[in-house]
Design a protein that fits this description.
- The protein is an alpha+beta fold and 150 residues long.
- It has a single domain, classed as START domain (Alpha-D-Glucose-1,6-Bisphosphate, Chain A, domain 4), CATH 3.30.530.
- Strands 1-7-6-5-4-3-2 form a seven-stranded antiparallel β-sheet, with helices on one face.
- A hairpin with a 2-residue loop joins strand 3 and strand 4.
- Helix 2 packs across helix 3.
- The N and C termini lie far apart (37 Å).
- This is Ligand-binding SRPBCC domain-containing protein.
- InterPro entries: START-like_dom_sf (IPR023393).
């Protein structure tokens, strides 16, 4: 299974970074290029443990719907969301936060498995891992910018 790991140092308190990272409105702002909307479950504000959100977005020219659920949370250090319905065979997105000297290291670990066996593995190698990395990096840059402006 492919795994993406991104580390983002942020000059802001851990609680702020944690809350910005689980804010659905911030997520939507970071995915304007995919015309993403939250259409069911928790559709705005801070998502909590056990809550789900259903996203609708356009990826690779195709409208897709994906539902994820927050399955673990240890505020303000960690939360994980996992796909319960969608195009992937599996995905888990872990959000880790470590505070040091008033700053925060935000680490994303995104583990996924594409459908379609060999074709999915080929898609991962050719473009999907890079595409998902870019989506996560864009999201993180917006979180970093907002946190450091406050």
């Amino acid at each position: 299974m492919p795994s993406i790991r991104l580390e983002t140092p942020i000059n802001a308190p851990i609680e702020l970074c944690f809350n910005l990272s689980r804010n659905i409105d911030i997520h939507l702002a970071s995915t304007k290029q995919t015309q993403e909307t939250a259409i069911a479950g928790k559709t705005s504000g801070l998502i909590e443990l056990g809550e789900t959100v259903t996203w609708r977005a356009r990826h690779f020219g195709v409208w897709q719907t994906l539902t994820s659920k927050v399955t673990e949370m240890e505020e303000p250090f960690f939360f994980a969301d996992e796909m319960v319905h969608g195009a992937f065979k599996y995905f888990r997105h872990e959000h880790h936060f470590i505070e040091y000297n008033g700053c925060t290291l935000m680490t994303d670990v995104f583990i996924f498995e594409s459908p379609l066996k060999i074709l999915g593995k080929l898609a991962n190698a050719l473009f999907l891992t890079r595409y998902m990395t870019t989506l996560l990096a864009t999201r993180n840059s917006i979180i970093k910018h907002l946190a450091e402006q406050q």
